[in-house]
Design goal:
The complex is a heterodimer of chains A (about 120) and B (about 120). Chain A is an all-beta fold and about 120 residues long. Helices cover about 0% and strands about 45% of the residues of chain A. Chain A contains no helices and 9 strands. The termini of chain A are far apart. Chain B is globular and about 40 Å long. In chain B, the strands form 2 sheets. In chain B, strands 2, 4, 5, 6, 9, 10 and 11 form a 7-stranded mixed beta sheet that branches. In chain B, strands 1-3-8-7 form a 4-stranded antiparallel beta sheet, with no helix packed on it. Chain B is about 0% helix and about 50% strand. The chains are: A mainly beta (about 120), B mainly beta (about 120). Chains A and B meet through strand 4 and strand 8 of A and strand 4, strand 5, strand 9 and strand 10 of B.
Chain lengths: ~120, ~120
């Protein structure tokens, strides 16, 4: 899987927007960008994914650069419950007998939300 | 619809004992994945199973570790003769099926194994 780079940690205040960056300069044309997050003492949970266009869902928005070499996860109004480790993961959409079902987790970004 | 269930949530074993970790996927899901998370690290893929089949076990240690997903019942991750280095959180995830980047994986709460 192509590699992603994220800051080790970020801090935000409650009810303010948070922009979590991810660099993936070696992304291939068939890689989808997925975000998962892991709350303390819990298993990871899916947040959002996208390919080329910006995406919105009830949890967050995903802004993807035009060249796809970077993306940003946007939490519009951070709450204390959003404090977690956020993982940016690339997954190949092509099943060429490969292993695109695997999620390759890096160290992610630890988001701290201040009250 | 109940989520992915794992038990036990916490497991303590002495060196040399066996550990059995169970995972019940979400209803309707036929694909199960096991991941291991060592302290202060990200999750590492271990094995991918479908009912009665191991699809990919490339992340499993060569010895002492095995996994199964029988036709009936939960998926089992078995660790024989545990050592202190096996202490970790073990997460199970499930998906509806089909190898697609659209398929999100739904994770269980994990089993935290401590080897004394």
């Amino acid at each position: 899987d192509a590699k992603t780079t994220q800051p080790n940690s970020m801090e935000s205040n409650e009810e303010e927007p948070v922009h979590l960056p991810c660099n993936h300069s070696t992304i291939s044309g068939t890689d989808y960008i997925h975000w998962y997050r892991q709350l303390p003492s819990q298993g990871p949970e899916y947040v959002i994914h996208g390919l080329t266009s910006n995406v919105n869902n009830r949890m967050a928005s995903l802004a993807i650069a035009e060249d796809r070499k970077s993306s940003t996860l946007i939490l519009h109004r951070a709450t204390l419950r959003d404090a977690a480790v956020y993982y940016c993961i690339l997954r190949d959409s092509v099943d060429s007998g490969g292993s695109n079902y695997k999620l390759t987790f890096g160290k992610g970004t630890l988001l701290t939300v201040n009250p | 619809n109940a989520g992915v269930m794992q038990n036990p949530r916490h497991l303590v074993r002495r060196r040399g004992q066996e550990a059995r970790l169970r995972c019940s996927p979400m209803k309707g899901h036929s694909h199960v994945y096991w991941y291991r998370q060592l302290p202060e690290e990200g999750l590492k893929f271990m094995v991918y199973l479908q009912k009665e089949n191991i699809i990919d076990e490339s992340g499993m240690p060569k010895e002492r570790f095995s996994a199964e997903f029988p036709k009936e019942g939960p998926s089992i991750l078995r660790i024989q003769q545990v050592v202190r280095g096996d202490s970790a959180a073990y997460f199970c995830a499930s998906s509806p099926g089909g190898v697609s980047s659209y398929n999100e994986q739904f994770f269980g709460p994990g089993t935290r194994l401590t080897v004394l």
